[in-house]
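Operator note (shift B, R.M.): manual run for Methylated-DNA--[protein]-cysteine S-methyltransferase requested after the automated queue skipped it. Running by hand, logging everything below so the morning shift can see what happened. Input copied straight from the record, untouched. If output looks odd, do not overwrite the archive copy; leave it for review.
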Amino acid sequence: MNDALFQAVVAAPFGGVGVRTAAGEVLELCYLPPSYREKSPADALTERVAIQVLRYLADPDFRFDLPLASVGTGFQQKVWQAIAAIPRGEVLTYGLVAKQLRSAPRAVGQACGANWFPLVIPCHRVISASGIGGFAGSDLDAGFHVGVKRWLLQHEGASW
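Run finished. Output pasted below as returned.
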C-alpha cells in the first residue's frame, strides 16, 4: 500500500497507525490495515508521536502529550472533550454522551467518526446502546475498523 501520505507508520497488533504531521503539529492519526508496511519517523515530532503510540500499545494507562492541530467544528470539539474524559476501561453509549451535551446520539456518532486523533481522543470508548457500535465511520460489524475497536477495548480492559 502507498504510505506516502504518512510521515510514519507505526506497527500495531491490528495493523498500523499512520502519522501525519506538519508545521510542528500532529495533523492526523489513521488506523491502517496490515497491508501497510511500517515506516520510520521522518522527523523529531513524528518520532515523538511514534514513541507515544508504542507506549500506549504497551500500556493502556499511558497518557498522550502531543501538539494536536486545531481541527473540527465547535460541536465536534465538545464531543471530543467529552470522549477524552472517559476513563480507560470504561465506555459510554452515544446516547449518554449526547445527553451530557444536550445533543442527539447520531450527532455524537458523526463527531466520533470525524475524529482526526484516534487513540489520543479515544472514540473507541463510545459504544452503541445495543452493542459495540460502529467505528471510524464504519458500521460493518465484521469490518477492519470495528475489529480495531474491539482490540482497543480489550487492551484497555473494558467490557461492553
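Quick read of the result: Strands lie at 8-12, 15-22, 25-32, 92-93, 126-127. The CA atoms of residues 29 and 118 lie 6 Å apart.
Leaving this for review. - R.M.
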